[in-house]
Amino acid sequence: MDYLSALLPPVVMAVFFVGVIRVIVKTQGGTQKAKEDAAVDAALERAGDARPPAGADA
Protein backbone atom coordinates (compact mmCIF):
# COMPACT_ATOMS: atom_id res chain seq x y z
CA MET A 1 0.00 0.00 0.00
CA ASP A 2 2.97 2.33 0.31
CA TYR A 3 3.28 2.48 -3.47
CA LEU A 4 -0.32 3.68 -3.73
CA SER A 5 0.20 6.50 -1.24
CA ALA A 6 3.43 7.42 -3.04
CA LEU A 7 1.75 7.60 -6.46
CA LEU A 8 -1.46 9.36 -5.48
CA PRO A 9 -0.12 12.96 -5.10
CA PRO A 10 1.67 13.03 -8.50
CA VAL A 11 -1.37 11.54 -10.23
CA VAL A 12 -3.69 14.09 -8.64
CA MET A 13 -1.35 16.93 -9.63
CA ALA A 14 -1.10 15.61 -13.19
CA VAL A 15 -4.88 15.44 -13.53
CA PHE A 16 -5.22 18.96 -12.14
CA PHE A 17 -2.50 20.24 -14.49
CA VAL A 18 -4.20 18.68 -17.53
CA GLY A 19 -7.47 20.29 -16.45
CA VAL A 20 -5.86 23.71 -16.15
CA ILE A 21 -4.26 23.40 -19.58
CA ARG A 22 -7.59 22.36 -21.12
CA VAL A 23 -9.33 25.39 -19.60
CA ILE A 24 -6.59 27.71 -20.88
CA VAL A 25 -6.79 26.27 -24.39
CA LYS A 26 -10.59 26.35 -24.49
CA THR A 27 -10.77 29.99 -23.39
CA GLN A 28 -8.40 31.24 -26.09
CA GLY A 29 -10.17 33.13 -28.82
CA GLY A 30 -13.92 32.97 -29.13
CA THR A 31 -16.27 35.78 -28.27
CA GLN A 32 -14.01 37.22 -25.59
CA LYS A 33 -10.95 37.56 -27.83
CA ALA A 34 -11.85 40.99 -29.21
CA LYS A 35 -12.67 42.28 -25.73
CA GLU A 36 -9.38 40.97 -24.30
CA ASP A 37 -7.39 42.36 -27.23
CA ALA A 38 -9.02 45.77 -26.77
CA ALA A 39 -8.16 45.76 -23.06
CA VAL A 40 -4.51 44.91 -23.81
CA ASP A 41 -4.32 47.58 -26.51
CA ALA A 42 -5.77 50.17 -24.10
CA ALA A 43 -3.29 49.20 -21.37
CA LEU A 44 -0.37 49.45 -23.80
CA GLU A 45 -1.61 52.83 -24.98
CA ARG A 46 -1.83 54.12 -21.39
CA ALA A 47 1.67 52.80 -20.67
CA GLY A 48 2.99 54.52 -23.78
CA ASP A 49 1.34 57.84 -22.83
CA ALA A 50 2.81 57.74 -19.32
CA ARG A 51 6.35 57.36 -20.63
CA PRO A 52 8.23 60.61 -21.39
CA PRO A 53 9.48 61.10 -24.95
CA ALA A 54 12.86 59.57 -25.76
CA GLY A 55 14.60 62.91 -26.38
CA ALA A 56 13.29 64.64 -23.24
CA ASP A 57 16.35 64.21 -21.05
CA ALA A 58 16.49 67.04 -18.52
Question: Characteristics of this structure?
Answer:
mainly alpha; 2 helices; elongated
Give the structure's gist in a few sentences.
By secondary structure, the protein is mainly alpha-helical. 74% of the residues lie in helices and 0% in strands. It has two helices and no strands.
How would you characterize the overall build of this protein?
- The protein is mainly alpha-helical and 58 residues long.
- It has helices at 2-26, 33-50.
- The relative contact order is 0.06.
- The mean pLDDT is 84.
Oligomer: single chain
- Protein structure class: mainly alpha
Helix content: over 70%
Mean pLDDT: 84
Rg value: 22 Å
Outline, from the CA principal axes?
elongated
Beta-strand content bin: under 5%
Regions with little confidence, pLDDT below 50 for 5+ residues: none
What sequence of helices (H) and strands (E) makes up the elements? HH
**How many distinct beta strands?**
0
Distance between the termini: 71 Å
Main sheet properties:
none
Count up the helices.
2
Helices and strands in order:
Layout: H1 2-26, H2 33-50
